[in-house]
Automatic annotation (TrEMBL):
<feature type="compositionally biased region" description="Basic residues">
    <location>
        <begin position="1"/>
        <end position="12"/>
    </location>
</feature>
<protein>
    <recommendedName>
        <fullName>Hyccin</fullName>
    </recommendedName>
</protein>
<dbReference type="GO" id="GO:0005829">
    <property type="term" value="C:cytosol"/>
</dbReference>
<feature type="region of interest" description="Disordered">
    <location>
        <begin position="1"/>
        <end position="22"/>
    </location>
</feature>
<dbReference type="GO" id="GO:0072659">
    <property type="term" value="P:protein localization to plasma membrane"/>
</dbReference>
<dbReference type="InterPro" id="IPR018619">
    <property type="entry name" value="Hyccin"/>
</dbReference>
<dbReference type="GO" id="GO:0005886">
    <property type="term" value="C:plasma membrane"/>
</dbReference>
<keyword id="KW-1003">Cell membrane</keyword>
<comment type="similarity">
    <text>Belongs to the Hyccin family.</text>
</comment>
<keyword id="KW-0472">Membrane</keyword>
<keyword id="KW-0963">Cytoplasm</keyword>
<dbReference type="GO" id="GO:0046854">
    <property type="term" value="P:phosphatidylinositol phosphate biosynthetic process"/>
</dbReference>
<dbReference type="Pfam" id="PF09790">
    <property type="entry name" value="Hyccin"/>
</dbReference>
Length: 313
């Protein structure tokens, strides 16, 4: 009688890594030489024009169905957005940059179906396992309180001055959602542009005036305008990205210092503009960074009442 062999069971395959070895997109994403060359091309005075082949390549690449290639485009978003926002105030047409930003914005609009991103906020008027309230609730049902993380999206085909902040902000939101896969060099470039956008100097930087002079020379050479308007649509994703750079599990010292310096510059800008919301947000990031540097400072409980026999009048 013939023997029937049982089919050999193979172990389950591990989940596919987003950036597989031997994948050309992975090599392109993490190649420092390619990143340097593309960054230099973005900083050319004629970059972002309608005839810019680099912008055309990024536009076509992002429209591909490969997530790895889309990630390559996002890797260069800080430099693209940085140069674009710094030149937008010069009233110079930049259709090359805008085509890439619109492609990213349209992708997010389709992925979210234009819907807003919200989070549920507990109603403190009702008691919970963490607190008790003496207020009498009007009804027994808990009202739903929603906090809007990202507002609803409308389809845009062109970039206008009134839409620019929203379009760039949505692109940065997508960058943040993939930030764990973004190389460190891209994040450091983002932090440097945040310092330029703030228009403020980092007073805690040891180099002082020499660093400021070098930054001015670089800005003049690359045609960047420096300080820009920072509405909340752009600041909100900026602060999330900087928060990741400061508190990410895999800490990189160079990235941490770049993000810390960027937070101090943005905090100085918020103090200059007297923007209470941004002062609180940037001040919190600065405090978290200081606590990460000096853990002993975090152990101090400033709410504790000290006991003393001396009465101060």
């Amino acid at each position: 009688p013939s023997r029937h062999r049982r089919p050999r069971r193979h172990p389950p395959r591990p989940p596919a890594c987003p950036l597989r070895l031997g994948n050309p997109a992975a090599s392109l994403l993490k190649n420092p030489e390619v990143a340097t060359q593309i960054s230099q091309l973005f900083r050319r005075p004629d970059s972002g024009a309608v005839t810019d082949n680099l912008c055309a390549w990024l536009y076509d690449t992002f429209h591909s169905s490969e997530p790895d290639l889309q990630l390559v485009v996002l890797r260069f978003l800080p430099t693209l957005a940085g140069v674009y926002l710094s030149r937008a105030g010069l009233h110079k047409p930049l259709p090359g940059f805008e085509s890439v930003l619109l492609a990213i914005y349209a992708h997010e609009t389709a992925a979210r179906n234009g819907q807003a991103i919200t989070v549920s906020i507990p109603d403190l008027a009702h008691s919970s396992i963490y607190h008790e309230t003496k207020q009498t609730a009007k009804n027994s049902s808990t009202e739903l309180h929603l906090g809007v993380v990202s507002a609803s999206l409308e389809p845009y085909g062109t970039v206008r001055s009134t839409r620019r902040a929203r379009i760039v902000g949505v692109a940065l939101e997508l960058y943040y959602s993939k930030i764990s896969q973004i190389p460190v060099g891209s994040k450091i470039e983002f932090c440097e542009f945040c310092k330029i956008w703030s228009g403020q100097e980092d007073e805690n930087n040891g180099d002082g005036a020499s660093t400021a002079n070098d930054s001015q020379k670089v800005e003049k050479k690359e045609g960047r305008g420096g300080r820009i308007i920072l509405p909340w649509e752009i600041l909100q994703p900026i602060l999330r990205i900087l928060g990741h750079c400061l508190m990410a599990p895999e800490k990189n010292e160079e990235l941490f210092q770049a993000a810390f310096s960027a937070c101090r510059c943005l905090h100085a800008r918020a103090l200059h503009d007297i923007n209470a919301k941004v002062i609180l947000a940037t001040g919190s990031l600065v405090k978290l960074a200081e606590m990460a540097i000096d853990p002993a400072a975090a152990a101090v409980d400033h709410t504790e009442i000290s006991m003393s026999n001396v009465i101060t009048i």
